[in-house]
Amino acid sequence: MRSKIAIVxxxxxxxAGCESNHKDTKATAAAGHEDSKVCDMPGQGAAVAKxxxxxxxxxxxxxxxxxxxxxxxxISTVLANPAxxxxxxxxxxxxxxxxxxxxxxxxxxxxxxxxxxxxxxxAPTTQPMKDIFIKFQDPPAGRLIPMEAxxxxxxxxxxxxxxxxxxxAARHFAEDGGASEAEISKIVGPQPQLVLTGxxxxxxxxxxxxxx
Length: 212
Description:
This protein is of the alpha+beta class. It folds into two domains: 1-37; 58-204, CATH 2.40.50.140. It is built from five helices and seven strands; from the N terminus they run αββαββαββααβ. The N and C termini lie far apart (112 Å).
């Protein structure tokens, strides 16, 4: 009799253990299922692709540039010491400040706001030149460089010439650039000017018409 009672108790304990294990298994599976849901949420555990900045359009005039970016010199540096760059082929960076209003055949490039103050501090107080003058041949039709190029960043290449622009030419280009009569009247005698010959100009933020 006692042996039968012992067998019954052992069987009951075994069934209770099985039921408990079954409940634990279900709970573990449920927990695992919930964890799986969290892990599978969008953006979890996966690398988020970085959005690349939109590229600025770039218009190039005069052919192809051939110097590396590492060789570029801020225009402020050249204005501070033109003699060091005279008759050298250079790559310069700056901002377009003026464009020919009639044909777009010339432009002036000056130091940008970041480098202008540094250049001014290093430049002699007698430094009369404030920009680089770049002239292309007049286009046979239409215009070459658009007016919206003014204010844009430019990278220019060419041979730097240090000279003096005749009064008549200086007044002519000032008039084409939209200078007032008062400003033009102040141009008296030859004007000191840095000129880039054989130029290649790349202007950011504008698009060049395909027919050019």
